[in-house]
Amino acid sequence: MPHSYLVIGGGGFLGRHVIEQIRARKDGSTIAVFDIAEPKEPDTDVTYHTGDLRKYGDVLQAMAGITAVIHTASPPHVNSSNPPRDLYFSINVDGTKNVIKACQEAHVPVLVVTSSGSVISTGEPMVNVDEHTPYPPQAIDVYTESKIECEKVVLAANGIAGVQTCTIRPSAIFGPGDRQLIPGMIEVCQRGQHRFQIGNNTSLMDFTYVGNIAYAHVLAAEKLALSSSSPVGGQAFNLTNGTPVPF
Ligand code: NAD
Q1: How far apart are CA 76 and CA 88, in angstroms?
Q2: Pick the CATH number of 4-246 from 2.60.40.1120, 2.40.50.870, 3.40.50.720, 3.40.50.1820
C-alpha cells in the first residue's frame, strides 16, 4: 500500500538509504524529508523541509498529509571525556517528544524511530541476546543514556491518539555514505593508534549493512500500518547482520 513518508534526518547516512528503500518498493509512495541541514543535491522526487527537531512548529508543519514517519535524526556519537549531554537530550529526547506530539496532532498513524543496539549494552560481552534483555542500570555513555530515554518515550506513546510506534536498534552501521565508522578507523590509523591492541583479539562486534537497516525501517512502517493494533506496535527490534566479527 502506498504511503506518504516523512523521513526525519533524511539528509543523513541512514536516512538517505531509507529513501532508497522506499523508492525500491515502487508502490507509489511519496517521500518528504525533514532535516536541519539543507539538501546538498536535492532529488526531484523528494519534498524537503529544513528545520530543527527542537522547534515544535518546524516539526508540525512538515507533517501535513503524512501517513508514516521514519525518524532517524540524532547528533553523532562522539567518544569524548566531555560529551555534549544537553545536545543529546535536547534532540534525542525533547526533539523526539516533539515528533510524537506532532504525529498525534496531525493524525499520522505510524512512527518508526531509530534507536541503538547500545541501549542494552552493559559493556560486557553480549552473545545471543534478544529483546527481552533489560536496559542496564547504568548506560554505557551519555549518548546511549539519551537513546534509552528516547526509546522509552517512543514505546510508551504507542497506541495514544491513534499513533502506533516502534523502534529499531542497529549496532555499528557500515555502507556507502558512512560518515562515522570507516572515517573514524582511518583517523585512528592516521594518528598511528593502530599499533596498540587492547585485549587478545577475541572481542566480537556486530556491524550491520546500512541497506538492511533501512529495509527494516520500511518493513516496520508497513507492518504498523496494516492494522490499528499491530503486534509490532510498542516494540523495540534488535538488528544484526548475522555473525559478529572480531573487533
Ligand atoms: P547522520 O549524522 O549521518 O544523520 C543524522 C541526520 O540527522 C543528519 O542529516 C542531521 O542533519 C540530522 N539532524 C541532526 N540533528 C537534527 C535536528 N535537531 N533537527 C533535524 N535534523 C537533525 O547519522 P546516521 O549515521 O545516519 O544515524 C542515523 C540514526 O542511527 C541515528 O539515530 C543514530 O543514533 C542511529 N545509529 C547510528 C549508528 C551508526 O553506526 N551510524 C549506529 C547505531 C545507531
Answers
A1: 9
A2: 3.40.50.720
